């Protein structure tokens, strides 16, 4: 394993900030697994998420999707449940779905709920919360527009949330994607994080950006080549 990783790092200068086009080429050239590797982005932000006014959270609809097929669960009743099913939700229910999840069966990657269902879904906080699956109005997963939320989730909506070390990570495509489509997705992700800049952020907000594949090394990206005007150094 170590030998393979060291070989993959050959040709990558660890301290260099690459232009986005060059970084994508380096990452894709090293995505040699027998499966279509996921391309991910990691951003170091100038925030301390321990403070409420420095929390960064949101959702971005990637213009070219993620390349991954998500299973979506919807907590809803009646007409809203029917809307969710028609929109392509994989799992739809109310009390019975709560019981299923409490029993340890979580057969979905994204969870959506209508507002009236939240008192019920709230019972699942200890189960869904640690997995990042708890519905939240800030990222559009607590909504009356369940059909729109299901379609967005299926079409490439990616949630992001800053971690303890001030890092935001997210999936931005597959190694099989054309370079231009990855660039568009990366810029959309960075733009969404920039727009989610909290009031309490001080100094440089977007400090470092890197991309990598599932099995490959990270490549540092010059933030100026992916960030929107004003988000770097502000």
Radius of gyration: 19 Å
What is the strand content? 15-25%
**Helix segment tally:** 8
Name the poorly predicted regions.
none
H and E order: HHEEEHEHEHHHEEHEE
Describe the structure.
This protein has 8 helices and 9 strands. With 234 residues, it is of the alpha/beta class. Strands 7-1-8-9 form a 4-stranded antiparallel beta sheet, covered by helices on one side. A 3-stranded parallel beta sheet has the order 4-3-5, sandwiched between helices. α2 packs across α8 (179-195) and α3 (78-87) runs parallel beside α7. The protein is globular and about 55 Å long. 37% of the residues are buried.
Q: Concise description?
A:
This protein is of the alpha/beta class and 234 residues long.
Would you spell out the secondary-structure blueprint of this structure?
Elements lengths: L1 H8 L10 H10 L8 E8 L11 E5 L10 E4 L2 H10 L3 E3 L1 H8 L7 E4 L4 H4 L3 H4 L17 H10 L1 E5 L5 E8 L4 H17 L10 E8 L5 E3 L13
Parallel strand pairs: 3-4, 3-5
Antiparallel strand pairs: 1-7, 1-8, 2-6, 8-9
List keywords for this structure.
single chain; 234 residues; alpha/beta; four-stranded antiparallel sheet; three-stranded parallel sheet; 8 helices; 9 strands; 21% strand
């Amino acid at each position: 394993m170590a030998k393979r990783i060291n070989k993959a790092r050959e040709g990558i200068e660890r301290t260099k900030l690459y232009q986005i086009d060059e970084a994508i080429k380096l990452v894709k050239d090293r995505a040699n697994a027998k499966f279509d590797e996921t391309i991910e982005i990691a951003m170091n932000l100038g925030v301390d998420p321990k403070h409420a006014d420095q929390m960064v959270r949101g959702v971005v609809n990637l213009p070219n999707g993620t390349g991954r097929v998500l299973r979506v669960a919807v907590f809803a009743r009646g007409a809203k449940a029917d809307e969710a099913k028609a929109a392509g939700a994989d799992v739809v229910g109310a009390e019975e779905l709560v019981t299923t999840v409490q029993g340890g069966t979580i057969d979905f990657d994204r969870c959506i709920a209508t507002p009236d269902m939240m008192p019920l879904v709230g019972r699942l906080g200890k189960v869904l919360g640690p997995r990042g699956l708890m519905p939240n109005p800030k990222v559009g997963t607590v909504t009356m527009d369940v059909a729109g939320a299901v379609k967005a989730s299926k079409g490439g909506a990616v949630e992001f949330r800053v971690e303890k070390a001030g890092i935001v990570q997210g999936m931005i495509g597959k190694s099989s994607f054309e370079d231009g489509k990855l660039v568009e997705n990366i810029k959309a992700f960075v733009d969404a994080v920039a727009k989610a800049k909290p009031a309490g952020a001080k100094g440089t907000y977007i400090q470092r950006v890197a991309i990598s594949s599932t099995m490959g090394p990270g490549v540092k990206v010059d933030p100026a080549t992916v960030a929107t005007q004003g988000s770097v150094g502000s």
